[in-house]
Write a structure and sequence with these properties.
Layout lengths: L7 E6 L9 E3 L4 H9 L2 E6 L9 E4 L9 E7 L7 E13 L2 E8 L1 H4 L4 E3 L2 E6 L20 E8 L8 E7 L14 E3 L2 E3 L2 E5 L2 H10 L7 E8 L19 E7 L21 E6 L5 E4 L10 E7 L7 E5 L13 E2 L7 E4 L1 H30 L2 H23 L3 E4 L5 H5 L6 E7 L1 H14 L1 E7 L9 E7 L3 E3 L3 H13 L1 E4 L15
Parallel strand pairs: 2-28
Antiparallel strand pairs: 1-3, 1-5, 4-7, 5-6, 6-7, 8-27, 9-25, 9-26, 10-24, 11-14, 11-15, 12-13, 16-19, 17-18, 17-24, 19-20, 20-21, 22-23, 26-28
Helix pairs in contact: 4-5
Amino acid sequence: MNFVPNTNLRLLKGVPLDKEYQNTIMFANASAQQSYFNSKLVQSFDDFTYQRLQKYCVVGVNAEQLYNVNYMMFQNTNFGNKWFYAFVTDVAYLSQTSTAITFEIDVFQTWLFDYKLMSCYVEREHVSNDSIGAHIEDEGIGYGDYITYSRVDNEDTGISDCNFVVASTRSITDPSVEDTSGGIYDGVFNGVKYYAYSSASDLKKALANFKDYTDSITAIFMAPKMLSTFEAGSHLVKESGAYNRGSFFGSRPLNFGGYVPKNNKLYTYPYTVMNVINNNGGGMALRYELFKDPTSCEIIIEGVLNKGTCLICFPNNYKGITDNREYQLTLPPYANCEWVNDVYSTWLTQNTSNIGLTTLGATGAVAYGALTGNLLAVGGGLATAMNTLANMDKQDKIPNEIRGGQGGNYMLTGARKNRFELYNQTITAQYARMIDDYFTMFGYRVARVKVPSTTSRKYWNYVKTSNAIVTGNIPTDSKDIIQNCLNKGITFWHDTDVGNYNRTNSIV
């Protein structure tokens, strides 16, 4: 584009714009625009004539007086009273009294009030709504490691505080009573009854009283107290017709290692994340912004009481779904316990009646034989008695049996770490500050078809588009330049303090 002004020429200094078009200034009107550029005046020339078709002019001033000139404005009578604005790209010495000025038209300032931006694909911009969660598009930038803002375990749910549970076909409180009626625990029927003890000493006392019936025990295992509640004094576990449930809560962090960002996108994933782990290598990462209430993110815990008890957890009101089991984490089973089965006591209890009858018969045979003089009867009775005693001695010598103890995570259970833990996490303050500065300068990735926003912020608006469309009564090559600048990315400033990002660029 070549404009040949032949009336007014004004050379300016200190204008914070250049031909790379990284920045431009938005003025409220042409009067404000002209007033600002006039304030940068170095030299003014009236009735000045240029040669057409050339992007330079020669002024009658020594170059030493013009080396600080970086911008110019002129009126060309061929175009009426319109002011044209241009970047000065070179100031060259010609003689003691003449200097060559090379320039390029600033199409943004020259046609500032004549072009219009149309709808197109907007890649980035400063948004007009910065509420948390409104913009979650992937930025495709690195964010470093996570640090923990706060930690939440679930001690209060009683899942690592365990009871010792005995499964038995006999009543532990009255061993003489066989009870095979079973029970419904957490909605699941089991053919045994469960008895729970809160301490090892209580369990030992119960087993000591039950030693003659330990063969009736089908399992001894540890289970969270939330699953094994019992009436004080009875130890019989309460039956329940549905899952036992508990919950714990996470909440979105308020800062990043003490750093408070200006841009609320930092409070969304991946810059913040809620990590739930099971202390056994498993975990799930959840996004605060996808919870119904990011300040109180509920994690549900469920489980069923049985041998090999394990628990699951999942988010509630996540992605618009109550009890969202799509996201689920499982705890390893709690430890199964070992117990001693007294083989002799068990055998003796099971065979007491038979032993009694056999002994009685043998005694009767001996007495009858002695009375009648029947030596065969005496001998048979003695033989039967001796066999019974020999069998009892044999059973007494059989070692006690160790039962149970197979399965479960002993280490986690013993360390009271068989539980879920929740970590509210953020990126480091260093990365948060870098990304925040990036958002401050260049806005967010929006990836939408819309009219680019150039006036949504107080001090500046950055816009980057793809296939920008510009209309207006302006030259075609100027349209092309404006469109190319938009596609490359450009910052529109709303005051003349260009490049000052140390301000709160609030939403207008």
